Every structure is written in structure tokens, then in C-alpha cells.
RNA sequence: AGCCCGAUGGUGUAACGGUAGCACGAAAGAUUCUGAUUCUUUUAGUCUAGGUUCAAAUCCUAGUCGGGCUACCA
């Protein structure tokens, strides 16, 4: 399939430890120099930015080494999985810019897996255990004490074969029997203490329907699926590293294609959570609006928020791949996003907190159109016309009645530039009876049309504005961190991570005023509201009569930072 | 607790026995019709203790700290 463009680091990029292994294997002509990876999600939830790291790694390696990457759904637990997720996962991967070479489902291998189980039984390497869950658990032993062998451990091959086939044919209820690998109940690797291979589950599977009532466990299904697909490098996250001895054991005993497993550290980001379990808590607890809430680190949420695939890919390449379990600062992600949006987003003007300005020396009842540059970073984006008139709106915090010296914006008697328009001088602030400023009376200099003074005088500040008459109203949603703490794994004793939820993570601004070109903006196009940030029209709630914009990310703001000090 | 994995500026990473480098952040400055962008400069690091070696971030041993495993989840 056609490779997507890989992230923008080129040849100068250093190889991470996994790519080093792959490069070495190619060099040594292992598997005839063939490279084949896979991305193996369980279809039981939506993909998140952590999955993006794995996707970029697996698909990226395939592209870089001229290999292949499969998408394989690890659908071995019918009670948790659903086609809804199968579809959303594919959508998200494609959106990220990758295309799989082969699409597989572990459930397609159930018959082969069953046959291999029989082979292990015949080799006396697997047996049917008829103990209860509780008994099995108790016999497992502890980290310091060995486990005990099941009283069913030495059943004959024939009895095992018979029982296993009757398990398959549905003779038994859930939990009556399991199939176990016969390894070593005294092993220091707890995972090798006769791990379960199959359990009985009378449940309908989203793909195989009611064809099966026994389902393989992850450890028995995953490595064998890798082997069937002749995966050369099976890349997974760190928590599976204790499973590797078992992964290798099955492959060795079955004598099948020797896939190898390599583990890397999953992504952790500050101020957010990154697990399906916690996402479910957020959605079910109505802390967010759903899996695609723009505050969620799910790919669907990030897409709705206005993240671009390129930004995510660049981020993944910047953070690297190691076995160190770190915590990546969210600003790294946000900067990757700003860098990408800065190049591609067209500029528009929008006033989020409008303050009316009457330009007293501008002729009443008249208006004009001015030229504005769409993207100073990209000349090909061209220009557009923006209407200007006697009454405009400016941002409320662009005016101060008693401004400090370093405030470059509007104040009584001060002159600023209206972006792409004229110089404007504030003459008077009109207040209501409570002393709130409700309107500004200003004058403009007709000689400064376009934004430059013929006499060469300079102004320190340029502010954005919209025409009162021509602007359109919109709702704007601003987002902040989901959590108030950097690391939810680090909560004080006895505190649940949900106590750290930021109750101000969403603020909804109504009555915002946008320049009219935004009314028929192609909804999918990211835009920069000048001096405010990058925004995108909300894909779900925005309609012709009711514009809704999401703030993707703010611009860097060294002014407000200074104020804090 | 046993086993496994890990530890380099604030954060994320590179250096593969031979000059500790990069990015982000932070700080200062320049430019600027976005207090954005861009550019310049500065900042700050090898967990600890031993050992091997002419030479250790790198190899060895022990310790400390962090993570994982002890599901009929993946």
C-alpha cells in the first residue's frame, strides 16, 4: 500500500533502540532482511495519543525499512469488544496518515489456535484443569513461595483431548474447565506457573458470532498470531516484558515462525490520563462530553479539538522511543501543534470578549473593505477583504483605563494600530452607572489606511478588531488541562485521581464576534484568530445559524506570562 | 516480598570504552502591522558507593529510587 509521508525528521535522525535492532537484523539478513510489524489493538475502546506513539513506531519502521505493517485486532474477549471500535480504530489510523498492508483479526485464527492447542496436549504440554477459579488462584503461590500443581495436571492425553473438544462443543458452562499450559508451578516468573490458554465463555463474538464458546487468552493468541503473519518484530509496551518468556515458550514448543517481542515505554503526558479505564470513568461520570470530547487525549477528541495528523506524527518522532517510563510535558505536544498550525492555518480576526468602539470622525452610514493577508507564513494563501466601519468591536482586555508603562495596547489618549486598517486613538471611555466601561469613543487617522503612517510615526501595539455591523456572532469554547495536577499517578495518599479534575477545563464564550469570512469557513479548515490562538469549527455542534469554534491551542503569550511575575 | 525492566540539565532524548550533544522549557536581547513567528545569546545534567581500565554516562558488583508482574483482561 502507498506509504504515508513519515514525520519530518529525515536522515539525520538518530535511531531509537528498536530501530537499531531492526537495522541490525536487516544488516544480518535475518528473515532474508524482511521487516514486518503490526499494530494490534483490542477493539474495546477508542485510540488515544499513546496509541499514536505505537502506530508511528510500527508503521514508521515498516516504511523506513521497506517492510510491511499489519493492522490486527486482538479480539479474543467477546464480552468487551465491539464492531463500533473496529471501525473507529481504522478511521483513526487512516486519519493519522497510515495504511496497513494486511488487515487481520485474531479471531480469524481461532481454528488454527485450537489445533495447536491439541498439539500441545498431545505433547503433554497442556491440560484441562477442572478446578474453580478460586482454587487456581490459591495454587498460584506468591512471589516468594512456589505454586502447587493442580490435581488435574496429570490427566491423560486422551482425557484432555476429549475434555477440550467437549469444551469447544459447548457441553460445559462458563468456568467449569480451562485449558492450561503445563510449564512449571515453581517458576520465578509467575507468568509461567501453568498459565491459562483457554476459558469457556458462552458469549456472542462480534465477528465469529456463536461459532465458539471457548476463547484463547492474550498470551496464547498474541504470539501465535504474530507467527501466523510471520511478524519479524513484535513491538509492545513495557508491561508485557514479563510475558516474553511465555511468548517464546509457545513459539518454541510449537516450532512455528520465531517472531520476537520488543518492549518500549508507553507515553505519559502531564495533566491528563491515558487509559481506557479512566476514559470510561470520565465519560460515564459526565466529566466530559464523550470519547471525542475535545479535552480527551483520544485521537477522535484531538481531531475535534483541531489537532492535525502531522503535528501528532512530529510529536511522536520528537519524543523518541526508550524503555524509560517518563512523563512528557504537554507543552511538547502543544508546540508541535503550534509549529504545524503556524505554517498552515489562515489568519482571521475574532473578538472573543467584545467592547464596542465608536470612531467619531468616521463618516456615519459608510463602510469600506480593506485587504488582509491570509497567512504571513505562506504567500500562496493570498489576501481577503475585511469590512470596516464607524463602529467596531475590540477585545475588552486590549483597553486599560490606567495602563502600566509597558502596556502597548489602547488607553486614554493612546494610539494603536488596528490590524490591516488604521491608527486609532482613544478619546474617551463611556461607563454605565456602576462604573463599567461599556463603550470607547475614538478617532482614527484616515492617512494611515492599511496600517502605515505616511509621516513615518510608529505605534507600539497592533490590535485585532471586527466591524460591528458586519461581524457574525459565534460561540467559542476554550479548553484547559483536564487535570489540575501534572501527574495523576502521584496523588497524595488515599486520594482518587478524579479529585484532581479541573472543573474549569471548559469555558464557553457566547456572543463572540467574528469577521464575516468565518461565516462560510470550510469547517474542517484550522484558522488562527490573530493574537488569540488556533481554532477550528466544532464538527458536531456548529451549524450555519449557530457557529461554534473550539480553541485548539492558544498562541504563546509572553505578555501575560510577564504579568504573572 | 521474589522476579523483570529502567535511571544523562526542569522535561524528553543522543553519545555503543576516548571532547557529554540536541530539542522543548526558562532567562536576556534583536526583528516584527499578531506581546505570535523568526533570529542571537545564556542557563542547567551522567542516582550513590566501590571495582575493571591509560581512559567509564557507557563494562562489573552492591545499594538507592522509580515502574511492571502476582486477572478465566489485553
TrEMBL record:
It comes from the Bacteria. ATP binds at residues 42-44, 48-54, 237, 266-267, 274-276. Its main location: cytoplasm. It holds the Pfam family tRNA-synt_1c_C2. GO terms for biological process: glutaminyl-tRNA aminoacylation; glutamyl-tRNA aminoacylation. GO terms for cellular component: cytosol. Residues 462-538 form the tRNA synthetases class I (E and Q) anti-codon binding domain. It catalyses: tRNA(Gln) + L-glutamine + ATP = L-glutaminyl-tRNA(Gln) + AMP + diphosphate. A motif ('HIGH' region) lies at residues 41-51. A motif ('KMSKS' region) lies at residues 273-277. Residues 35-331 form the Glutamyl/glutaminyl-tRNA synthetase class Ib catalytic domain. It is found in: Cytoplasm. InterPro entries: aa-tRNA-synth_I_CS (IPR001412), Gln-tRNA-synth (IPR004514), Gln/Glu-tRNA_Ligase (IPR050132), Gln_tRNA_ligase_bac (IPR022861), Glu/Gln-tRNA-synth (IPR000924), Glu/Gln-tRNA-synth_Ib_cat-dom (IPR020058), Glu/Gln-tRNA-synth_Ib_codon-bd (IPR020059), Rbsml_bL25/Gln-tRNA_synth_N (IPR020056). CDD domains: GlnRS_core (cd00807). One of its GO terms (molecular function) is glutamine-tRNA ligase activity. It is an enzyme of class 6 (ligase). Its EC number is 6.1.1.18. Transmembrane segments: none annotated. Residues 345-445 form the Glutamyl/glutaminyl-tRNA synthetase class Ib anti-codon binding domain. Keywords: Aminoacyl-tRNA synthetase, ATP-binding, Cytoplasm, Ligase, Nucleotide-binding, Protein biosynthesis. L-glutamine binds at residues 74, 218. Belongs to the class-I aminoacyl-tRNA synthetase family. Monomer. NCBIfam families: glnS, PRK14703.1. This is Glutamine--tRNA ligase. It comes from Thalassoglobus neptunius. The gene is glnS.
